[in-house]
Predict the 3D structure of the following.
Amino acid sequence: MENIPEKNTERSIIITLPSSIEWEDYQKELDAVKDSKAVMNFKVPFLPKENMRDKITKCWLVWRGHIVGWQHVCGFVEDGSFDCTTTGNRWEGNFIQRTGPFHPVEPVEMKGFQGWRYYFY
């Protein structure tokens, strides 16, 4: 069982995958970063405050109305760009970066939303 972080030392955020994404397709992206040699970028309209970023260690994921697991946060990119190796699309903006294995959990119901939120579990 995981230890709950001490107050004010660790924070988590939570994001929502569009429901149009099929899990099998997303799993390919998760597999590509599970060894922590690559990162996944998730575009957001704004980033957490700069003084909070180093405290954010986990990014939880909502998909089709349920929290399904988490990944480690490895960085934040402000006004950046990248070319997606899965779709070939070029993305510009602010990004939450994740890497390492995906840690699935028993699904917990949660309504999806846009952007990101702080998440206290």
